Amino acid sequence: MAKGIKVEGEGEWNARKHGGAKRRVWRKIHVGIDEKSLEIRAVEFTTSDVGDAPMLPELLDQIPPDQEIATVTADGAFDTRTCHDAIAARGAAAIIPARKNAKPWKPDTAGAIARNKILRTSKRVGRTIWRRWSGYHRRSRAETKMHCVKLLGQRLFARDFDRQVAEFQVRVIRHCRSDQWRDMAHSSTASQVSEYPSRRP
Fold it and tell me: What is the pTM of this model?
């Protein structure tokens, strides 16, 4: 999943101060989310001209090799050889709908073989049934987590790219820490409730 964030550049600051045309510069945030825990597991920060699919292998690389990835769910934009091969390399199953008018790939890699199976199944049962059968609909649950990206702020104030990356990384770290504290508090509350049940007449 990806989301845009605006850079508060000198040109826009001067435009607000002195008037004139505003020049907006955007950056993209690519996020990998655990669909069960809704934990943000991987984040990449790029310029706005970088596509979503090419970043998937780098997102997967951020997850330690000893941590199992059961499935990777993404939309049809990720129906590429690079994505399917990266998913297969992690021993995960891809839940990615084949693009419309898609054709089988040469079955020369594990990723291509798995993708061709998706294509065959989708054509046999129909795209709607395949989405329900495969669990693709669970992707919407992870999408609800994207509202948290808004909590990281809609603007960046650093001017050069490296500092923008650092600025955003600090925000992500703070957000993850707040999530951990919230989970700890919830766990503590749940424990207290179970230990001290309310008395009913």
Answer: 0.70
